[in-house]
Amino acid sequence: MSAAGIHPTAIVDSSARVAEGVTLGPYTVVEADVEIAAGTVAGPFCRFAGPTVIGPDNRFESHCSVGAPPQDLKYDGEPTRLVIGAGNVFREFVTLHRGTPGGGGLTKIGDHDLFMAYAHVAHDCTVGSNTIFANGATLAGHVSVGDHVIIGAFSAVHQFCRVGDHAFLGGFTVATKDCLPYMRTVGSRPARCFGPNTLGLERQGFSEARRAALKRAWRLLHNPKLSTAEALASMEGELGDQEDVRYLLDFIASAERGVILSRG
Question: Global pTM?
Fold first, then answer.
């Protein structure tokens, strides 16, 4: 470990593994069982607890709490983990907690995510890549978030819920069921789904044909003349060979808490 990028007031445990090229700001603390890869920058007053593994080129702006014990009364000090990928940005006062034995023991974050100020990822969550968590966005325990997801400011996702790939959650949304991939989910209790995230999908390079298939799938799901079972059957028969619609169907079929629709 080189001290060249480490401020004199930073405290680094002798067992921590901090690569060459890591920058640690004033009063930052790196505890035992923490591994930080090259190119990562931590601003002032950050705390890194372990066991935690942090990939390369991450940025922690300031006052981040990374790898703290889970907020779970059943947790009794077991050696669970937090694993963070590469190229993520964590702004002020972001909190990321390790897993619990009952949830698999692992909280995992992908690559190139942006966590704005005061975002929170609780124990045993899985977050994909290229996501955006706006200010105050919060995940309860055991939540799974896919790739290219946007979670609006001060939104909360209930424990054990899933958020599918390319989903958009509007600000102040309270999600107590699974949030459909590709769709816009907005609102407090009860949250509602408002159809495809058209602008976001276009920005992600979805072709007109792919977007049209998802719009058609949504019209079937949203059709008041069809029951949910009938709508799903129509989607299967008409659009089941479309990859995105297949993922949407499989997502709905595998939901354990139900999914959020505008049907209530």
Answer: 0.94
